[in-house]
Write a structure and sequence with these properties.
157 residues; mainly beta; 11 strands; 43% strand
Length: 157
């Protein structure tokens, strides 16, 4: 996937995160924090199920890449920890407030870096749908909340 600026509006509350020289990150990638380095969602070890992958990812969700990092780069990159981003999704209808998480690849072995899916569990989500999607569409606005820096999406009581 090419670098795609997915930010649409809202405060991004950016932070600068380090990246290992071997890690490739594209603008718009959904990122996790692995000890002290930002990495794309697809680098997370497979947990055997989509929900398992999403729940583990929720706990280490750092934000969305606002800068790219090519192989060999060692400079920290800007990462948005909040804001509304437009992500790809499978054809679906969504309501404002629906929980969203990274989608899983077709093989069921890894999360996708720039595609999201609706979930029903706040412990799997990285944000909420920010604009109703009806009729069905393939792009959704998601109000993201970094779990690492902002506590992530919370369940409604």
């Amino acid at each position: 996937m090419a670098n795609t600026m997915r930010w649409r509006y809202g405060d991004t509350s950016p932070v600068m995160l380090p990246v290992d020289s071997a890690t490739v990150i594209e603008i718009g990638d959904i990122l996790l924090l692995d000890v002290d380095d930002a990495k794309p969602a697809s680098t997370q070890a497979d947990q055997g199920t989509e929900l398992g992958n999403q729940q583990l990812f929720h706990d280490v969700f750092a934000g969305v890449a606002m800068q790219a990092s090519a192989a060999g780069d060692t400079q920290p990159i800007r990462v948005a920890t909040t804001g509304v981003f437009e992500f790809d999704c499978l054809t679906t209808t969504l309501e404002v407030g629906d929980l969203m998480a990274p989608d899983e690849n077709a093989g069921g072995t890894a999360l996708l870096n720039q595609t999201v899916a609706k979930v029903t569990n706040a412990n799997a989500a990285i944000g909420r749908c920010a604009k109703r999607l009806n009729p069905a569409g393939t792009r959704v606005l998601v109000d993201i909340v970094s779990a690492v820096l902002r506590g992530g999406p919370q369940a409604i009581l």
